[in-house]
Every structure is written in structure tokens, then in C-alpha cells.
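Design request, C-alpha cells follow.
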């Protein structure tokens, strides 16, 4: 995700590779392609699947229009993908934050449970001691009542 945000426009073999929409100029790219077409600088690639099979029969202007349209569609698709990636990245950040908060609350609750369990054990011991003392005092009361009679 950090790669997507820090991408720049690069050029490879005279073809602009749009990796992020920031700083991209469609007009400049089209102008460069048109200049190369005028100079005859773009090679004909028989294996190229950009232009349809009738591309060889198309006039240069028609090919340029076709390539411009193809470039616009590709640019829109890429912009959509970048948008979706950023959206997913933001969603991931939110989920990571929620997970961290949940883990912290879980740790806090575990600590509270541990303290409550130790207090429960302490009160059980105190209750047992109080019961023994009470029984002992009851026995003493009974013994004293017998002495008084």
C-alpha cells in the first residue's frame, strides 16, 4: 500500500506507464506518441494486441484515435484500481486499530478477571475461617450454658 502512494510516472521505451494519477499528463503522453508516429519512431509489432487485427489497414489518424481511447480507458481503470487500493488500505488501517484496541481491552479484562479470582479465593478462605470460629463459639456457648445449669 505504501508503494502505491509513493509511485511516480516512469517512461519505458517511449510508453508512459501510469503508476499513479498524480503528475500524469495525458496530453503530454499523447503528444510524445504523435511525434514518434510522425517521425516513424514507433516500431510495428505484429504480436502487439493493442490494435485489432484490422489495425494495419487503419489510417494513422484512426490508429491514433484508437490508441488515445485505449489510453483513456486504461487510465480510468488504473485510477479506479488505485482508488480501490487506497480504500482497502484505509479499511485495513481501521481494522488494525480496532484489533489493537480490542487486544488491549482483552488484556485489561484478563487482568481484572485475575484480580477478581484472587479476591474470590481470599473471601472463600475468610468465610471458612469465620465458619470455623462461629462453630467454635457455638460449642463454647453450649458448654457455658451447661456450666450455668
Amino acid at each position: 500500500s505504501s508503494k502505491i502512494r509513493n509511485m511516480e510516472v516512469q517512461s519505458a521505451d517511449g510508453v508512459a506507464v501510469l503508476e499513479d494519477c498524480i503528475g500524469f499528463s495525458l496530453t503530454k503522453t499523447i503528444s510524445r506518441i504523435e511525434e514518434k508516429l510522425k517521425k516513424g519512431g514507433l516500431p510495428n509489432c505484429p504480436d502487439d494486441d493493442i490494435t485489432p487485427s484490422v489495425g494495419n489497414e487503419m489510417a494513422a489518424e484512426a490508429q491514433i484515435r484508437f490508441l488515445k481511447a485505449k489510453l483513456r480507458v486504461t487510465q480510468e481503470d488504473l485510477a479506479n484500481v488505485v482508488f480501490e487500493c487506497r480504500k482497502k488500505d484505509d479499511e485495513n488501517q481501521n481494522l488494525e486499530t480496532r484489533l489493537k484496541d480490542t487486544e488491549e481491552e482483552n488484556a485489561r479484562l484478563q487482568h481484572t478477571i485475575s484480580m477478581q479470582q484472587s479476591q474470590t479465593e481470599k473471601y472463600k478462605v475468610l468465610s471458612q475461617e469465620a465458619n470455623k470460629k462461629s462453630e467454635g463459639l457455638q460449642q463454647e456457648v453450649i458448654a457455658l450454658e451447661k456450666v450455668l445449669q
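Comment from the thread starter after seeing the answer: thanks! Residues 1-22 have pLDDT under 50 and may be disordered.
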